[in-house]
Design a protein that fits this description.
single chain; alpha+beta; about 50% helix; Glutathione S-transferase Yfyf (Class Pi), Chain A, domain 2
């Protein structure tokens, strides 16, 4: 399989974690979101993903899957060992709810194209941009912290879809200097995840294209 990704993209980080938890080999293909005016805009990549987003997973037969959550669901259904979701419908709904709090409510407000629009089109300075970023992570983490229990991971004793979404978002929060001291549960889960190679070795810092 080929994973078209960008080293700092949190959605790409999710896909890398998922592939690694399943112990599936894959080839990195860098789609640099900044160089050359943004390689995601080039016709060759747009032919694979008309949205121009990363990640994009190309299967061995050439089939393309876009959107990180769809990629993760596909991996979980196709390779059921090391499941990303618990057994019962109620538990699965709970984990999906936690995952969507991050992937649908926090991340979209802080992704690259939104930040670029704020700085280029609306001409916000770095201070205002950082304030925007910190505000939406804080809003999301305030709610997420209340939803977490005392388990070592977001739910249960092994990583789930929620943990796969959480760790990249914590990475972003740290990058933008969000105060994480009010979130001891989030910090605990993040620490436990980063003890696992699937999370640690696929981090942006360890990406082969990291700058």
């Amino acid at each position: 399989m080929k994973l078209y990704d960008y080293w700092r993209s949190s959605a790409s980080y999710r896909a890398r974690i998922g592939l690694s938890l399943k112990e599936l080999p894959f080839e990195h293909i860098c789609v640099h979101l900044v160089k050359d005016g943004g390689q995601q805009h080039q016709p060759e990549y747009r032919a694979k993903n008309p949205q121009g987003f990363v990640p994009c997973l190309e299967l061995d037969d050439g089939h393309i899957i876009t959107q990180s959550m769809a990629i993760l669901e596909y991996l979980d259904e196709t390779y059921p060992d090391t499941p990303f979701l618990p057994k019962t419908p109620r538990e699965r709904a709970h984990v999906r709810s936690l995952a969507n709090m991050i992937s649908a409510d926090i991340h979209p407000l802080n992704n690259t194209r939104v930040i670029k629009y704020l700085t280029v089109e609306l001409e916000l300075d770095d201070q205002a941009k950082t304030a925007w970023y910190q505000h939406w992570i804080t809003e999301g983490f305030n709610a997420l912290e209340q939803r977490l229990g005392d388990d070592p991971f977001c739910y249960g004793t092994s990583p789930t879809l929620a943990d796969i979404c959480l760790v990249p978002q914590v990475y972003n929060a740290e990058r933008f200097k969000v105060d994480l001291s009010p979130y001891p549960k989030i910090a605990r889960v993040n620490e436990n995840c980063l003890k696992l190679d699937a999370f640690k070795l696929t981090s942006p810092a360890n990406h082969p294209d990291a700058e």
